[in-house]
Amino acid sequence: DAKTTQPPSMDCAEGRxxxxxxxxxxxxxxxYVYWYRQIHSQGPQYIIHGLKNNETNEMxxxxxxEDRKSSTLILPHATLRDxxxxxxxxxxxxxxxxxxxxxxxxxxxVVTP
Amino acid sequence: DAGVIQSPRHEVTEMGQEVTLRCKPISGHNSLxxxxxxxxxxxxxxxxxxxxxxxDDSGMPEDRFSAKMPNASFSTLKIQPSxxxxxxxxxxxxxxxxxxxxxxxxxxxxxxxL
Lengths: 113, 114
Prior knowledge:
The complex is a heterodimer.
Chain A: E1 9-13, E2 18-23, E3 33-38, E4 45-50, E5 55-56, E6 61-64, E7 70-75, E8 84-89, E9 107-112
Parallel strand pairs in A: 1-9
Antiparallel strand pairs in A: 2-7, 3-4, 3-8, 5-6, 6-7, 8-9
Chain B: E1 5-7, E2 10-13, E3 19-24, E4 31-38, E5 42-50, E6 53-56, E7 65-71, E8 74-79, E9 88-95, E10 104-105, E11 109-113
Parallel strand pairs in B: 2-11
Antiparallel strand pairs in B: 1-3, 3-8, 4-5, 4-9, 5-6, 7-8, 9-10, 9-11
């Protein structure tokens, strides 16, 4: 996988936007950026993914820089239930490595009242 | 819609016993993945299947581990004989291969080997 770098932790106030950065400077042109989160004791939950364009769904927005070397996951109105570890993953797109998600340490997000 | 279904949710057994974990992928998905999560190693991919065929098992720790996918709606991960170091949470995920489709995970099986 293209190596991703995320801050180990961040705090966010309830009701405010949470902006989670991720660096992936070695990303290739056909590799997607995926974001997952894992709430304690649960399975990883898919949030959003993108290739080149910014994306938005009911959970979050994904902003990818024009050079694709970094991205930001935005949780528009954080709630206490958004407290989780957030993973930014860029799996390799070649056929031999296809589908292999490599989970790093992620960012521990704590939403406080 | 039903998500990925794993069973059992919890398993406690003694060292040396055979353990079988089960997974039902999301209907219509043609790829299935088995992961293991421990405090020491985090989340790691063990094996994945495409169209019921094992594609990459390089993450399987040793010969005591085996996985099968006899049909599109069922997969098993077996450990025989089990050891205390196999204690972990095991997750199954599935997706439809192609177009960058994301993997969707089950709730996991928490395995404790005494």
